[in-house]
Amino acid sequence: MQSRLFNRRERGGKVFVSPDYNRSMEQQREMTWKRIEYLLERGVFKGWMAGEGEDVEMKMFACSEVLGIFDHSISIKLGVHFVLWGGAIQFAGTQQHHDKWLRDTENFKIKGWFSTTELGHGSNVRGIETVTTYDSKTGEFVNNTPCESTQNYWIVGAAKHATHTILLSQLVINGTNEGVHALIAQIRDGDGNVLRNIRIADCGHKNCLNGVDNGRIWFDNVRVPRENLLSSVADVSPDGEYLSSIKDPDQRFSAFLTPMTAGRVNVAVNAVYQSKVGLTIAISANQVNFKDFLMLQLCYDLWSQLLENAACEEDTPIKQDHSRLLLHGVTCKILQECREDCGGQGLKTENRVGHLKAEHDVQSTFEGNNYILMQQTSWSRGVFIFRSKIREAPDIFRLVLYNSP
Questions:
Q1: Confidence (pLDDT) at 174
Q2: Taking a C-beta distance cutoff of 8 angstroms, is the pair 316, 362 a contact?
Q3: Where are the domains of the chain?
Q4: CATH code of the domain made up of 259-371
Q5: Which of 1, 111, 113, 390 is the most buried (most CB within 10 A)?
């Protein structure tokens, strides 16, 4: 980060870097992309997709932490490209998909993003209304945005840089809706031109994260090859037969969606980064009271809990959501305390704490609305506890409970 792209400044014999939030939206977007190109040229992302082993994972983890602390915009751009787009191909795709897409993803020859959110919803993945049908005559899937409320919204990279996207849609085969599936759709050519039958609009200026080019996408009979369906869970034969070893639709949906919960883990991880930055600023500003040190310790304790939950195989998706909700609430309180402890200096942009508060605000709805996730997590944990208690109950008690209305 010695490059001027990272706003390098020398103070008291030390080198500091920080984002410049005083630029226009277009300038912030361009600077975010230049920073990604700078890191790419120096081999920072080598092995992130095509490599294997603990060393690769730890390097990716460490780099993500450093960049998350530096600027949330670059963290989100890289997170969507590698974790959501790349992760979906890794976990929901087959070896054929890995060979075709992962190396080009790592080298940014393909700029991949993830299309889940629609204008009419932000959390109801099962209720997505974008429709995909199959044309057995051409061996292609046909994708459509049936109405305005089903336009893909807030899609990272769509406004400017994305060339491809993972599209989640209702897969309809021979008149039967087989549920939500994911496929790869190209939206721009190599020169950045939007492809035919695709319409893209910019989401515009935001309260924060203006280094991220969020956009809106409409599909009008957009055709993609049959091979672009991510088919580790289910596939469609050339003649249009739906194939899956998992017959139950609910189990199939869970198996398909579980690997994609990594995005919610990233939300929790970024909450920890923002807390660490805010606390460091407040403590170094000499406007400190003892609770700041206690919150710093709490921050690290929660970080340890997050890692433990992410590594636990039992009930993992629910624990991931629980960690995200817990860390979001704690970080909101931490950043508010840091802002007050900085006094009037906390109002300045260069102080960063106020801007961190604005950036953290997106976490309340990003990757799912927190109110909905809270209800879902509470219900799921309640069912989990109830079932565990039932297993310990006498046989006659279990019989009464299981057969009660």
A1: 92
A2: no
A3: 4-106, 112-250, 259-371
A4: 1.20.140.10
A5: 113
Phi, psi at 154, each rounded to 5°: 65, 25
Residue count of the chain: 405
Contact 98, 89 (CB under 8 A): yes
Query: Which among 294, 354, 289 has a CA at the least distance from the CA of 330?
Result: 294
Q: What is the pLDDT of residues 144-192, one digit of tens each?
A: 999 999 999 999 999 999 999 999 999 999 999 999 999 999 999 989 9
Which parts of the chain sit beneath pLDDT 70?
1-2, 123, 258-264, 286-326, 367-405
Burial of 174 from C-beta contacts in 10 A (0-12 / 13-18 / 19+): exposed
For domain 112-250, the CATH architecture is Beta Barrel (2.40)
Place of tokens 């931490």: 334
Phi, psi (degrees; rounded to nearest 5) at 394: -60, 155
Looking at residue 332, the DSSP 8-state letter turns out to be H
CA nearest neighbour of 373 among 273, 261, 288: 261
Express each pLDDT in 312-348 by its tens digit. 444 455 555 556 666 777 788 888 888 888 888 888 8
How many Å is the maximal CA-CA distance in the chain?
75
Query: Which residue is it, tokens 């920890």?
Result: 272
Spatial separation of the C-alpha atoms in residues 237 and 218, rounded to whole Å: 27
Q: SS3 for 240?
A: coil
Cα–Cα–Cα angle for 245, 80, 321, nearest 5°? Answer: 65
Of 293, 144, 160, the C-alpha closest to 214 is 160
Structure tokens at 20: 């410049």
| Residues contacting 347, CB < 8 A, separation 6+ | 354
